[in-house]
Amino acid sequence: MMRTEFDTTKKPAQLDIEGEMSFATVSDLHAALLTACDEVEELVVSLDKVTGIDAAGLQLLFAVCRYAEKSKKTVRVVPGAAAERIDRILEFSGLTAPVCLAGDIAQ
Amino acid sequence: MSADTEKYLVFSVAEEKYAVEVVRVEEVIEAYGITPVPRTPSYLLGIINLRGRIVPVLCVRRRFGFEAAVTTTDTRLVVLQVCLGEELVSLGAVLDAVHGVVDISPSAIEKRPALGNSGDQHIAVTSIAKLENELLLVLDADRLLTREYLDDSYEHLRRQAGG
Amino acid sequence: MNELGSPLETFREEARELLEQLEQHLMQLEEDPADHDSIDGAFRALHTIKGSGNMFDLDDLVGFTHIVEAVFVRVRDGKLPVSRELIDLSLQARDHISLLLTATESGTLDTEVAERSRLLSVAFEEYLDAETSAVSGGVAGKQNSEAPKDSEHESEGECTYRIEFTPAADSFLTGANPLLILNELAELGTILKIGYCEAIPDLKEIEPEYCYLRWVILLTTDQGENAVRDVFIFVEGSAEIKIDVIDEADPLIGESGYKRLGEILVDRGEINPKDLESAVSSKSYIGELLVKKGFVSEEQINSALQEQNYVRDIRENRRTVETSTTIKVKVEKLDELVNLVGEFVTMHAGIAMVAERKNDQDFRAAAEQMEGLIRQVRDLSIELHMVPVEILFSGYRRLVRDLSEDLSKQVQLKLEGTETELDKNVIDSLKDPLLHIIRNSIDHGIESPEVRTKKGKPPTGTLRLSAYYSGASVVIQVVDDGAGMDVERIRQKGIERGVIDSSDRYSEQDILQLIFAPGFSTNEEATNVSGRGVGMDVVRRNIEAIGGSIRIQTEKDVGTTLSIRIPLTLAIVDGLLSRIGDSLYLINLSYIVECLDLKDVRTAGNGGDMIDFRGEIVPFLDLRRYFGVEGAAAEHPQLVVVAIEEKKIGLVVDALLDKYQSVIKSLGKIYERVEGISGAIILGDGKPALMLDVDRLVKVTRDEVKK
Q: What is the ipTM metric for this complex?
């Protein structure tokens, strides 16, 4: 349902999320994100292969951004192919995109 | 006069006096401003503009089989409401003269069979009103021009044109 | 039986309209399976029928419609593609719903109908897998609550609610997905959702399975507060819900603005009035100030700003809705308007004449200005009476489809020029005649696929309905690429019936026109589709009644074209005044090709009954003679060349006068059989003049020449 791949060989390090970011997977996803954030100073979270996202998944993205704002680490979320999907759920839930998401997507 | 009398407009055509129920009369005007419509029976004189409405005009003399008369100062156009088929239409009737309105009690009116052929004046006269010093032919406005007569006339015209 | 006008009767009426729409959408989908608007439309129609049916406890109807709707939910969500089979089935469902609707009149459902409900339901259920059944179940649950029994008092008028919704922290765990609730709310009306994410902690602190989101929702709906509350029925115990009416559709409130920002915040309890006052007293931008002073967060300000804009928009919309959406006007009123404008035009012609005579520069200028204005008013009033023929055409899609299926033929319907506008009354009177013609084309015209293949034609026949402007007329054509008509056979039949004789003086068109004679049918065995030749005579009569004419062109194995020419509007025309004898006649300008001096024209033909018009040999008609005008001919007769559908004739008149714009008035019953004249106008001096029936004159003249 959901798989993460953490590639530290890339600069900056990249966490690829594949599959669904939903209530069913947020616990695992949370753990993977925490690990990645702890391990590196600069992190790119790629949502390119995300196939679905719900309110719980979205909430977790906000938490990532909030973390990025607070900590001294650089964390960027790159929506990639999931950009449209994320836009849709943001619009649907009446939320505005968090800062780290709204940033540049170019890589 | 008692309440059960009815008002009639008295007019004359070819030296005979007629009466028609006033309820059928829309108005009485001078007989001018008639635009002829070609290829129609000769008793149809054409159309007039009655305050924006187009009203067909019929010559009662010709309709009753008389020669048309020269228009005089007495000539009038009486706009009548008549039934044509299922519809109520306005029809202008050109008459020799209009004499006024009289009250006639129903008891003074005598039914009589409509005589003569369809081109005759008597076909439209279904009763006679006996007044003190004169007799009036009571005109049944609806019989002045019937659908059938009109169709026959057009048919006649068409055959003439064809032959 | 229900009385007319009862709520149930109204429902039935509306449901029938919705079924019409559903059908249109389905037909559209058949052409373009990806058309989102039609998918949405079909869904909405079903949804509304179900919803309203619920109010009347029409269980059979609601139950069945629900299943169909559930399938369309899948289609709408892109989970199910639109297939030919699905359209077929949906059309059957449409008809069945219509049947169930009729059954509500008697209140009983016979077993046959019930069985059909069951069978169709099973067929539809196949399109639903386990997952979507759950989805549709949810929708249905909502549906039931959406239509509370007491909604009659409540549904009066539109109302805007501010809903503050804070889901319970464990709402994800309990399956009460807040987004679903938002979705259900959105279906009630216009919605603005403002999500708050301020409570979401950072990654380190978050309990990812807890819900930290909350919403302020502005909902404008006419469904009443109960309907809104019902959406929250499953979360009522746990979530925090506050519903306030913030804007009612009160006609007394005229202002378009809304509360000021500070007031909104106070209303929401996000700031107390005292803080507001102290902030305001320092006179700066209120939002900025409140944030600066730390009374409210930026998010709260933004949200309040959104609310302000939303309500403003809704109010603005409501006002536009009230003023600029369709207003139903009785056709008689429009007729009256067109008539009055006509009077106006006539009166102006009189004024212009006086202005001309007096030769007063200023007076003339004023009259000219007035003319421009009148023209605008005239065009507008005529426009009000016009509707696009699409309304007429698209109604035949279903007919073509069903008919070709019944007859095992393949027919493709093509619509052209659907934007062409026609007088509403004209459109109404065309409905039945066109229906007959289309039926005939499919029944007798287009061949079966086998026959077509043998003839080397594509197996699918094409039926084309097209409309286009042609002068002051609109031409509507029904074109098929079928077998064509057998002229010889029609001729034989005509002779048999004694309608025509065996001489060869009849043109092909004359013979073809025989099919419009009462009781004349070319098909020996009547099929149950075209009936027994009933209709075509009625077709012609109906078309002639609105001043139209009908022509047939046919070619064996190539096809048949029926062209119906009808006047664009029955009201006002631009014409050229001409004189014949002592009378004036108006000739519709749109038919006039050219005006010439007769002496400049060479006659042609054996009897000199033709003219040479720019190399073309054209018959002409001396109107003096035709109208039986006595007296000597005019010194300089004029020739007016007119054309109807490329068919030209010359009309000889005594003199040409001015261009003249006028209302056309009917000559009435007594003159309805007159040939060559189609109506009357009233001239500036109040005298009537006649309008030439160019259509008729062209026909008469050309027929004469043939003989």
A: 0.91
